[in-house]
Amino acid sequence: MVSGTRMTIRGCFFTRVQYIELVYRGLTDKLGRIEMLPPAILKPQPLWTGKQVVSTLLLNVIPKNAVPLNLAGKSKIPSKAWIQVPPRAAPGYSPDSMCDSEVHTHTHTHTHTHKTCAKQTVYKDGQRISTVL
């Protein structure tokens, strides 16, 4: 469960070799051709997401004439519990002050044995505003 969660986290990508290796390891009993998905990112190099690895496994495990996976069920949470609330105002935020000349980004890329994670941090006036994985 932990590996599946870490593999499908946003911002983690796999190279072609890593993607194919994970798919083949998950489909060791499969005979015949394996249907692959196109990469999520094409440039500067083709990269696949962890969700695409899981989708590829499901795509090849489910027989062609079978009904695809589907989930339907009842919820214990009533629909009234999902209240639409307007977004809260961010302190110190002004849409006019967020021009490109005032906002600087810095990208860190960490390559591990099985995944490449990119982390981008946004700075304004020397202070960190946001970090995106």
From TrEMBL:
Domain RNA polymerase Rpb1: 5-97
InterPro entries: RNA_pol_Rpb1_3, RNA_pol_Rpb1_3_sf
Gene3D superfamilies: RNA polymerase Rpb1, domain 3 (1.10.274.100)
Protein's UniProt name: DNA-directed RNA polymerase
GO molecular function annotations of the record: DNA binding; DNA-directed RNA polymerase activity
Listed GO CC annotations: DNA-directed RNA polymerase complex
Family statement drawn from the similarity comment of this UniProt entry: Belongs to the RNA polymerase beta' chain family.
SUPFAM superfamilies: beta and beta-prime subunits of DNA dependent RNA-polymerase
